[in-house]
Amino acid sequence: MTKAKAVLIAAALLCLTGCGNHDIIGTEHNFKYAMLKMPNGQIYSGEVESWARSKESDRIRVTIDGIDYVTQYSNVCLFSEKPEWLEVNE
Q1: What is the pTM of this model?
Q2: pLDDT tens digits, one per residue of 15-61
């Protein structure tokens, strides 16, 4: 019974890692590029200098070109490598 519980917990943790950009068991994510949706609908993209998420809410802070953007997770896409289709704002 204990082995079955361990397998179930391991399977649940593996499923949770696919649920978005959340830290599971102290893992770290290194993102280099981001796309942000602005309130006026404009899409901004650039190289990520830093980012941080709020554990108490669905907010995320992304710093691009020295400017901090604070928004909800639903307005941000983070990439570990630059997709070939991504146009980075200069």
Answers
A1: 0.64
A2: 444 444 444 455 567 888 999 999 999 988 999 988 888 778 889 89
Q: What does the DSSP 8-state code read for residue 3? A: H
Instruction: Please give the pLDDT value at position 26.
Output: 53
Counted residue by residue, the chain has a size of: 90
Here the tokens at position 69 are 């953007």
Cα–Cα distance, 11 to 6 (Å, whole number)? 9
Mention every residue, 6+ apart, whose C-beta is less than 8 A from residue 88.
Answer: 33, 45, 46, 47, 82
How is 6-71 classified by DSSP, letter by letter?
HHHHHHHHHHHTTSSS--STT------EEEEE-TTS-EEEEEEEEEEE-TTSSEEEEEETTEEEEE
